[in-house]
């Protein structure tokens, strides 16, 4: 049984966070930590990590000025909505540095608009031990929304139902073709986008493509509306099911840091305590495994951009079984970052004083490899 999309114009108001005009967009800082990029000239510097002093005081950067992105006129004319997730550095002068698009949904025009605006944002710099420092753990999702958008168009609903019917009849090839055509339309409003990616996740489930399923769930959640009960894209029970599946998939991939992060997201949902209750034994097992002497082995693949972002659960890691080409790995922590060339015979050890860390791996698109989080013992 596939999900039914209501057609009434009163089903959904397409404002996200705040209603905005067709020439404006709004950004909202998210709790999720995403990586930040480094200057090109440092990309292949092969050096060893330096010992750093313990953090005695750290004050994160604070917003001084944010310019709203300009809503792309063609996207506004066509009634298209979307979002862009951007990772960036705030330098010692409070300026945005090295922004990079981590993910996006809807028209590709939104990426350019978001990147242009974010470069003009201004912050007070982060302070560590009384001195201004770069802040790496900073990310944002910028939402592009139009006034007067309601629910799904009849054309979208017809195609959605055809794809759902094909799945019910076991004709996955036909369902794939329909969904492909829907994607090629460069996105509709965010209501349609959310249901499209949820449908794509369902197809991925049936075909056994778990990575695609996880990516599609992430896009569905990013596209959905949750700001007002009356205008929610997904009902609470279905939203909970998406997060439970997201939790299970990260667990399947041994992405333990993200498993724990997803569990915290689940707790914020309606009836979050009840939803998380059956997952508590798995959370405990993850925490026990992180603290154990066993290595955490994670299979990864570089995306079309030649990049992969990974959130570390431990302070030691290395690489093995590289099928393709990896160029550089950048370690990004609360108030420190370093970049190195990749070597399969090297283990990176991160001082605990650097705080929570994540890595950005760069190389040739499609390169497959194993990232190994090494135990402290």
Automatic annotation (TrEMBL):
TonB C-terminal domain sequence ranges: 56-153
Signal peptide from the UniProt entry: 1-25
Cell compartment(s), UniProt: Cell inner membrane
GO biological process, any: protein transport
Membrane topology, from the record: Single-pass membrane protein
GO cellular component, one term: plasma membrane
Major subcellular location class: membrane
Keyword Transferase belongs to the record: no
Origin: domain of life: Bacteria
Record bears the keyword Zinc: no
SUPFAM superfamilies: TolA/TonB C-terminal domain
Keywords assigned by UniProt, alphabetized: Cell inner membrane, Cell membrane, Membrane, Protein transport, Signal, Transmembrane, Transmembrane helix, Transport
Parts forming coiled coils: none
Record-stated family: Belongs to the TonB family.
UniProt protein name: TonB C-terminal domain-containing protein
UniProt organism field: Agaribacter marinus
């Amino acid at each position: 049984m596939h999900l039914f999309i209501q057609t009434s114009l009163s089903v959904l108001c397409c404002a996200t966070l705040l209603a905005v005009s067709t020439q404006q967009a709004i950004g909202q800082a998210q709790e999720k930590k995403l990586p930040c990029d480094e200057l090109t000239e440092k990309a292949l510097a092969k050096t060893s990590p330096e010992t750093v002093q313990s953090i005695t005081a750290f004050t994160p950067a604070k917003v001084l000025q944010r310019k709203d992105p300009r809503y792309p006129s063609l996207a506004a004319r066509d009634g298209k909505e979307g979002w862009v997730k951007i990772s960036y550095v705030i330098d010692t002068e409070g300026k945005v540095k090295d922004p990079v698009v981590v993910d996006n949904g809807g028209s590709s025009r939104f990426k350019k608009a978001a990147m242009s605006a974010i470069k003009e944002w201004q912050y007070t710099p982060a302070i560590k031990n009384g001195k201004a420092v770069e802040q790496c753990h900073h990310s944002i999702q910028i939402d592009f929304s139009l006034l007067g958008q309601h629910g799904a168009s009849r054309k979208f609903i017809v195609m959605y139902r055809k794809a759902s019917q094909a799945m019910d009849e076991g004709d996955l090839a036909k369902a794939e073709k329909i969904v492909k055509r829907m994607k090629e339309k460069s996105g509709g409003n965010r209501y349609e986008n959310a249901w499209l990616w949820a449908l794509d996740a369902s197809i991925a489930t049936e075909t056994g493509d778990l990575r695609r399923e996880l990516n599609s769930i992430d896009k569905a959640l990013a596209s959905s509306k949750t700001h007002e009960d009356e205008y929610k894209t997904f009902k609470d029970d279905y939203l909970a099911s998406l997060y439970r599946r997201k939790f299970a998939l990260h667990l399947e991939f041994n992405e333990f840091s993200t498993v724990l992060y997803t569990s915290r997201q689940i707790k914020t949902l309606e009836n979050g305590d009840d939803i998380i209750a059956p997952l508590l034994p798995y959370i405990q097992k993850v925490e026990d495994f992180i603290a154990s002497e066993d290595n955490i082995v994670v299979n990864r693949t570089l995306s079309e951009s030649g990049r992969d972002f990974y959130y570390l659960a431990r302070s030691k890691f290395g690489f093995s079984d590289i099928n393709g080409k990896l160029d550089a790995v950048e370690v990004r922590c609360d108030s420190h970052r370093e970049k190195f060339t990749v070597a399969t015979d090297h283990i990176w050890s991160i001082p605990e004083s650097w705080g929570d860390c994540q890595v950005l791996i760069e190389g040739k698109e499609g390169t497959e490899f194993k990232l190994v989080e090494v135990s402290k013992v």
